[in-house]
Design goal:
Length: 430
């Protein structure tokens, strides 16, 4: 159930990032650079789009913020939503509506406020005492500290969590870590946002308060938890033994290895059989990135409508020939239609599961070879190094899911731009 919720929420997050800019009829203010600052006293009366290493908002953005980069710091005010993907977000000011963030650490300082929902995925969540989330809090990741106030409901799926604040609605907690030492792996490298050191598993501070119901899944139950909860308390045990954990970890690594080996084998086969096709598709990503993304999203949606149309047409044709008492033709139409549908599904699944990732990895390999390994330039299989590295990144929890989804759309669009009727073939570089 948790994985379904995670997939659903990640998909909603990405769709919000992809489609919201086109759904709102207002101006936009795109900015980029190493460090972008909205200074104190400055008011941006547009939606703000930023791709930079660091974005600092000290003034006011009268609209939504879309950010991709390393660090986002908000000490001023954003009247709309904040949709961000990066390393860390530090909120000291105010967000009028929702905050959606996918990255390593999400932190709210004392006095910070999110007027709507906070939806985040990553290594850690740090909501300090004195901060406020107006509506729901949803977080999936490593560890979470909740010391502030949540206006409605809380849903967490984490290794470790400490609940020390006030939840005005219900709380649904799924905590996999065992009480004791923290089970959340450390972050390598410096982080601009501090994360508290939490004990393992689920910890309920004496000051914590849940006005509604508390449902929690953990390795072991908490004692006297009813005194912190205004409604009902439901405990769902985790069956967690060291043997189970070891087997689960081994299975995860084995599945990751299988996925990587399969991706490399298919990549090598395509490199041997159709190197020009791979190179043309990769070139489309580099030269027509946004058209590739747009066509990929459109092609993904259209496929299912075409599949439905093919099924309806098959049924109508079968009924038509049946009415004409041409039973053999009716059976042939239905059998052929079902076969065509199955083949279409097989090809589509193969393309979206493997070929799109290979094309994206191939373009990454082109960039790596040209930038760092020029002596490999011209070698047929050299770009496979990018496929290998991209395949490794796809095994990273959460991040791999997001990048895989992005590669699906971008790679599918690039493939369509190459094979669509009337497309002019590119001169593929070896």
């Amino acid at each position: 159930m948790r994985s379904r919720w995670l997939s659903f929420l990640v998909l909603l997050f990405l769709l919000a990032l992809l489609f919201r800019p086109f759904a709102v009829a207002r101006a936009l203010d795109p900015r980029s650079g190493e460090r972008v600052v909205i200074a104190a006293g400055e008011v941006v009366k547009d939606d703000l789009y930023v791709a930079a290493s660091e974005l600092v908002i000290e003034g006011e953005v009268d609209g939504d913020v879309y950010f991709m980069g390393s660090t986002l710091t908000i000490t001023g005010k954003v009247t709309g939503d904040v949709n961000a993907f990066g390393g860390a977000i530090l909120l000291k000011g105010e967000i009028g509506d929702d905050l959606r963030f996918f990255g390593a650490v999400t932190a709210m300082e004392e006095g910070a406020r999110v007027g709507g929902d906070l939806i985040a995925f990553g290594r850690g969540l740090n909501v300090r005492a004195g901060s406020t989330i107006g509506q729901d809090l949803v977080f999936y990741g490593g560890q979470a500290y909740l010391g502030g106030e949540v206006g409605r409901n809380v849903r967490l799926g984490v290794n470790d969590v400490m609940l020390a604040g006030h939840v005005h609605g219900n709380a649904d907690l799924s905590v996999m870590g065992e009480r004791g030492a923290s089970s959340t792996p450390p972050i390598f490298g410096p982080m601009p946002v501090e994360m508290p050191s939490l004990p393992g598993g689920l910890t309920l501070d004496p000051s914590a308060r849940v006005d509604g119901d508390l449902k929690y899944q953990a390795v072991s139950p908490l004692a006297d938890v009813e005194r912190n909860v205004g409604g009902k308390v439901e405990y769902v045990p985790f069956e967690s033994t060291q043997e189970t954990k070891t087997q689960t970890a081994f299975d995860a690594w084995l599945n990751a290895l299988r996925s990587l080996v399969t991706l490399m084998l298919f990549g090598a086969l395509f490199a041997a059989a159709t190197p020009g096709f791979l190179q043309q598709s990769a070139t489309k990503i580099r030269e027509q990135f946004w058209p590739s993304l747009g066509w990929g999203v459109l092609a993904y949606a259209i496929f299912f409508f075409l599949l439905l149309g093919l099924f309806v047409l098959m049924i109508l044709a079968g009924v038509f020939f049946g009415i004409l008492t041409l039973g053999s033709i009716s059976a042939l139409v239905i059998t052929g239609g079902l076969l065509l549908i199955l083949v279409s599904i097989f090809v589509f699944v193969f393309v979206t599961a493997y070929l799109t990732k290979i094309v994206v990895g191939w373009e990454l390999g082109n960039w790596l070879v040209n930038r760092f390994l020029p002596q490999w330039s011209g070698q047929r299989y050299a770009p496979l190094v990018g496929v290998f590295l991209f395949g490794l990144v796809l095994q990273v929890p959460y991040l791999g899911f997001v990048l895989g989804l992005a590669a699906l759309f971008i790679g599918l669009g690039a493939l369509w731009l190459v094979v669509r009727p009337g497309a002019r073939p590119l001169r593929a570089t070896p």
